[in-house]
């Protein structure tokens, strides 16, 4: 499956008014189901809670969502297909690589929250997902599941990989000197969405949202490495025979991204023991 023009939609919608993860501590709770006889609860208990220590919350509970936001609960019959999707594209690619199973079990958040719709903000924007201090990831748009729809697939993959990347840098910090690669390219708070994809690339970023902070820059690059089929063509390999300033500036931006890319690949493996490129290879073979 080749990439299409989905990025602007993904990252323009991600978080126009609020950060995609929170720094405030979140209590890490893992609770056993109280002998539920519901088949879906039993599946979650066996495949997720018992196996990886992660509780999947699909019933709407208001404490999982900011009360100022508007959401739709997930339809129960769609939860298992979504969990199958996450297993194929998130869990299995990690546990199938060297050191991956131990890494995943040690870093997977205690809770995954499923929301049926986007999280609608009061200003008319929407949030695609959140990661809360390494303890919880919230995924949205469950009710729109359609594995024949490339837009839905890439929104989900972009979100889960982005939010999981936050957990990694929260645990191990950013690569040394990462912040010094393109310091002038970051935007002021709340203004990243004024950039186009091309303008972000010229600054040395894989998306406009990546310009919003060092942490978002890191998470965006990790996510794009994993889910973007044309990652190297779009962000790494220089254009040849440049004849205009725009081309020259894109190549300069790609040089900055290459520096960040090399730092991230090395830092990720040194910190976690997992080769991110091996994970990418499995994911791309399944797209």
What does this entry look like structurally?
With 287 residues, the chain is α/β, with parallel strands linked by helices. Helix content is 48%, strand content 7%. It has 10 helices and 7 strands. The chain has helices at residues 7-14, 39-52, 76-95, 100-107, 150-172, 197-203, 214-227, 231-236, 245-272, 276-286, and strands at residues 21-22, 55-57, 111-114, 119-120, 126-127, 129-132, 136-139. The chain has a 5-stranded mixed beta sheet. The longest helix is centred in the C-terminal third of the chain and has 28 residues, at 245-272. The relative contact order is 0.14.
Keywords:
287 residues, globular, alpha/beta, 10 helices, 7% strand, 5-stranded mixed β-sheet, two-stranded antiparallel ribbon
What gap, in angstroms, lies between the N and C termini? 6 Å
The arrangement of helices and strands along the chain is HEHEHHEEEEEHHHHHH
Query: Mean pLDDT across all residues, rounded?
Result: 87
Low-pLDDT segments, ≥5 res: 1-19, 21-33
Please report the total strand number as a whole number. Answer: 7
Overall form: globular
Structural class: alpha/beta
Main β-sheet description:
5 strands, mixed
Strand percentage, roughly?
A: 5-15%
| C-alpha Rg (nearest Å) | 19 Å
Q: How helix-rich are the residues, as a percent range?
A: 40-55%
Count of runs of 4 or more consecutive helical residues: 10
- Strand arrangement across the biggest beta sheet: 1-6-7-3-2
